[in-house]
Amino acid sequence: MTTKIGEYKGHKMISLIEEGKESDKYPPFSFGVKKAKLILENLEDIKKFVEENQ
Asked: Per-domain residue ranges for the chain?
């Protein structure tokens, strides 16, 4: 996976890009600081969700 830092409407964004998947069909997963904070605050629940649903 690679990451790219960019901007959207003046706001910093980070994009997570799966190797070999960047195209119009597979757009990157992008989010800003607010959503990044939410992800970090709920990381344990996200990990549990992934483990239970693989």
From this structure: 2-52
